[in-house]
Design a protein that fits this description.
Blueprint lengths: L1 E2 L2 H4 L8 E4 L5 E4 L6 H6 L8 E4 L4 E4 L4 H12 L2 E13 L1 H4 L24 E4 L2 E15 L6 H8 L13
Parallel strand pairs: 2-6
Antiparallel strand pairs: 1-8, 2-3, 3-5, 4-5, 6-8, 7-8
Helix pairs in contact: 3-5
Length: 170
């Protein structure tokens, strides 16, 4: 995954739908304009579905627990979908690398921590592997129907009101 390019993944007038998944708030969804977007995003359900239109920012807000279902619905209708989410960053090194005395480094850190004696926030798994969490960055990727899990496919295929059960996947 690459650092997210918002001009491409979260455009003002999208040609491809986008889902912004952040565990601290509701899902944000942008779709190309279509008269049936509300029905599509509720997946044919008429009651008990949280769905709000944010007029100022021009996106839908949905319950975050529907993430997998919404991605499946968008993929079924448009054939692809941008997913924007936080990616945990992780560094790897080794205790033997950080405590090394000579210049030769064959560690995955590429010499960045070689001989540094740095032990701050490192989790040493053994002498040859250490890891640490270094924060998050926003990342995005484009999904196609081949990326769906079996569970997501089953959820969307159970809802014939939006799509006929025999509709081919795009």
């Amino acid at each position: 995954m690459a650092v997210c390019n918002f001009a491409q993944a979260w455009p003002r007038n999208p040609q491809v739908p986008s889902v912004w998944h952040d565990s601290s708030r509701d899902l944000w969804v942008k779709t190309p304009f279509a008269n049936d977007n509300r029905e599509t995003l509720t997946n044919g359900k008429t009651k008990g579905v949280k769905l709000n239109w944010n007029k100022a920012d021009k996106h839908w807000e949905l319950a975050k627990g529907r993430y997998e279902e919404i991605v499946a619905v968008l993929l079924h209708k448009w054939g692809r979908c941008w997913v924007i989410q936080n990616q945990n960053l992780q560094e790897t090194c080794a205790y033997s690398c950080r405590t090394a005395k000579g210049p030769d480094c064959t560690c995955s850190c590429g010499g960045v921590y070689h001989g540094s004696e740095s032990h701050e926030r490192w989790y040493d798994i053994g002498e040859t592997f250490s890891t640490r969490h270094t924060g998050t960055e926003l990342s995005c990727r484009i999904l196609t129907p081949n990326d769906l899990t079996a569970g997501a496919v089953a959820k969307i295929k159970k809802e014939p009101r939006v799509y006929a059960p025999n509709d081919p996947w795009p």
